[in-house]
Structures are given as structure tokens and as C-alpha cells.
Amino acid sequence: MNKVLKEIRTSALSALWMMILTFPIIVIKVNTINMTVNWRWINLMWVGTGTFILSWLWRYLLDRKENGSGLKKTDTKESRRFSLHKSLNDKKMRIPVLSTLAVLVLVLPLLVNFYQVSIMTSALIFVILGLGLNIVIGYGGLLHLGYAAFYAMGAYSYGLMYLYWGIPFWVALPLGAVSGAVFGLLIGFPVLRLRGDYLAIVTLAFGEIARLVLENLSGFTKGPEGIAQIPRPGFITKLSLQGATIYLFYICIALVLFTIFVMRRIEDSRIGRALEAMSEDDIAAQSMGIDLTKAKLTTFALGAIWAGMAGVLLAAKTTYINPGSFTLMESVMILVAVVLGGTGSIPGVILGAFLVTLIPEYFRALSDYRMLMFGVALVVMSIFRPQGIIPRVRKHYIVGEDQS
């Protein structure tokens, strides 16, 4: 009983302080034309009630988290393996789910309108970006805040190659990946000795430098004016707008599947093991014989390849690019998708990319509060579920008699 009264008193004090602090903003409204003051007391009531409920809920969740932390690690591991690893690897469940999902994806353009197909194409491009950044952050453990620079390199590679040499989409797609990898190596060399916050600051600076260079090279990149009339991919003959959009949708699906396949192979490869060791403890990894210089450059190059391809897809979808499309906010949104879904988790990154892309599109009425919502979501996730919505499940190797 005393604990309940203490919780009520703490929540009431929080509500009172919030009401006092927000009183001048939400209650007083001055009409300067009629020289009158409107007192909106109902708003104060809503702030107090909402703060009281949220304060109570917040402490309840914290208390639940603290009580749950006393569980044995073996119990948590076994429950996680049962709920995620075991269910996802059960062929009886996996094959029907994947088959149904494949059929839905193939017939989606026939079931929805042109606008929905365009939105889903943008979401798939964001999935490729998220998976590319996941190599850098999830596998390599390197905090990158300038990922939009690689995205811009791919888009401008296609735009400039078509503008000056008339190179088509299918030739520009691999060349965009190559340009992203080259730019990733150029950024990787100066930051080899940096990590943590310093690495984040330097990569952020490189992202802004790349955008400013694209803006100021007006004679070559068209500057803030951008590059227009970039052609969409064609299939034997030139397609209509709707046909080209559907065709690009299927191209994005194929590239997402290819990206997932490559990510899976990287996880089980020698490179993937080296990146995982580097992310856990780079000093210990180096002492075990891992070349950190090679590992970091490989991380930046691999992550930039997918950003370059996504940039080519963006240029083909919008047919217009300018430096304003590759700001710091774009890098932050890609990072939000990775962190929100689950760093290092391929299904988690895919889910995070869809959430970050589709929620603002389908809830345009709340567009002014989009960043506030993402900020609150990240704070809540960081406290109560830091591993993300779908956490990464590491493989377990059981040696001995107990293999059941």
C-alpha cells in the first residue's frame, strides 16, 4: 500500500511540474488584434492527466525491466532460441510463410494502385540502404553518420554518366556500386585509427563535405539545380510511366533478395567472422591476427556498394536528383531504421526500413511530429529493448552429449 501511495505521489508531482512549466504556452493565448486573452484551461487538464499516466507507465516498465533482469541467462537464451531461432528455422513453418510472401510480392502491383507501388519501391530502396549500413554498424561495429554520401555517389554516377555519355540504367547499376566502393575506400583510409564518437563525427563531416561539393561544382554536377530527365529502366522497348514503375519494383525485389543472400554469405565467411571479432573487441581481434586495416576498409567498401546501387535505383525512380536529397537527415533516417529494427539482424533491419519509410507516408497528418515520434521510439527502444525489435540471433554450437 505504501508503494502504491508513493507511486501516486511521484506521478502527481511530475504532472504538477509539467503543468507549471507548460502553463504559459498551452493555457494563455493572446489575441493581439482584439487585445484579448483566451484562457485554455482544458489543455492544462489534458497535460496533467497525460503526464500522470505516462509517468506511472514509465516507472512500471522500468520496475518490470529491473525485476526481469534477475532471470538466469540460460533461461533467457533458451527462450530466445525457442521464440526466434527455432521458429524461423523450422521448415514446416518457413516454407509456407516464404511461399505466401513470394506470391503476395509478385501479385502486389496487380492488387494495388500506382501510388502504392511507388511507395513500396521507395521502401525497398530503403531496405537495401539499411542492409548496407548494417554491414558497417551491425557487423563491423563502426558508427557511420555520413552514409548518405555513398547514396549520393551512386545517384550522381547514373545521372552524370547519362548526362555526358548516355549510359543506360543496366550499365550504370554496377558502375554505381563500383563508384560507391571507391568512395568508401577513400573515406576509410583517413579514419582507420578512429573509433566511437570520433569516427561518427568524421563520417558526418565527410557526408556534409560530399553534399557541399556536389552543390558547388555547378559546371559539372549542375549544382543545386540538379540533374533532370534521367531515364527509367526499359525492358526491350521504352515502357510507360506505370509500366516502368512496376518494372523497377521487381528490380528492387530482386536486388533485395540478392542483398540478403550476400549478407548471409558474409555472416558465415572469413570476412564476417573478422568483422564480428573487430566489433566485439578490436584489440583482441588484432592480437589474434586479424588485420584491422583490411577489415575496416572492407567494411566501408561493402557498405558503400549497396548504397551506390540504391542511389542508382533512386535516380531511376525519381528521374531527378539534386544535393538536397542527400542531407544529414537522410543518413539519420537510415541509422534509425537499423537501430530500431535491430542492429546486426537482417529481418530486423528490413522491418525497421519499412517502418521508417511507410509510417510517414500513410500518416501524413502527423508529418509535423514525425521526428518527435522517431525520437521517442528510439529512447524507449534504447531503454527497454536495446537489441531492437527483432534482435540478432547468434548461432550456437553445442559440443558434447547434450545436443538435444
Structure description:
This protein is mainly alpha-helical and 404 residues long. The chain has 3 domains: 2-70; 79-111; 112-384, ABC transporter involved in vitamin B12 uptake, BtuC, CATH 1.10.3470. It is 73% helix and 2% strand. It has helices at 2-26, 41-68, 73-88, 91-111, 114-139, 148-165, 169-188, 197-216, 218-221, 241-267, 270-280, 282-287, 292-318, 328-341, 346-362, 370-384, and strands at 28-31, 36-39. Strands 1-2 form a two-stranded antiparallel sheet. Strand 1 (28-31) and strand 2 form a beta hairpin. Helix 1 (2-26) packs across helix 2 (41-68), helix 6 packs parallel to helix 8 and helix 11 packs across helix 13 (292-318). The longest helix is centred in the N-terminal third of the chain and has 28 residues, at 41-68. The radius of gyration is 25 Å and the shape is globular. The relative contact order is 0.12. Mean pLDDT is 82; it is low at 69-85.
